[in-house]
Amino acid sequence: MESSESILKRVMDKTTTARDESSAALPGQPDRVSICPICNDRGIILQGDTAVPCSCMEQRKIENRFRYARLSRELMNCRFERFNLDYYRSSDGMDHINNAKRALAASNDFAQKVLENPHEVGLLFTGPVGSGKTFLAASIANLLIENQCSILFLIVPDLLDELRASYSNKNETSEFDLLDIARTIPILILDDLGAHNYTEWSRNRLYTILNYRMNEQLPTIITTNLNFEEIEHYLGERTCSRLLQMCRVFRLSTEQDIRMQNYIKREKLKEK
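and the corresponding structure tokens:
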């Protein structure tokens, strides 16, 4: 049986070919630098009579890991050390900052433990828009990618759109390819599991992914702005039950949307 890594590479290579033909960069990746000054993009250099890999090859491996993980350029900048607890300070009496500290500690703990245990229990981050859920999920992804882990970061609405397109034969990637990748990739991140227009078909596809991963004990990280009553309403009781079995649950909240806080700071700086 073909491995998830080889399927993912094949699917992404199709995307790469199409984008190369239009001279566009891959999503989340910088524009391709022209030529390596050391090896002229051959990938090898001569040391005496021996051919050895050029140092640029290691950089390409790193770039490929990020590309296959589907991390956007913005998310590639997310790191635990940049998770700013000041955003969670409040005057409304809510325990925003302690919840954020617990979520950050759990994220760090997961990222370290999964390097040793490929069947570590996953994480589910809940909370309103702009509360830092995706930042933590991407921080985990970046640390694991840098440690050569196979990981896939999928935005749920985009995943469902791709599955619908493949199901209706609008692209060359089959529905089975996409489902198999999501089911079998060693570490999966599902971002923005929100109140979308779910059909019975899309609910079943998400259930198929989550049920397989639960049974195989494959770590999954999920971000959602739904509470569990809402998850059950949109996705059904059986999916909700599996999420509780698969993941530790942490809630993030802020007095004000973090993006709005950043916007206000940026505008104040411009006024000076």
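(Above: one complete record from the training split.) Residues 4-21 form the longest helix (18 residues).
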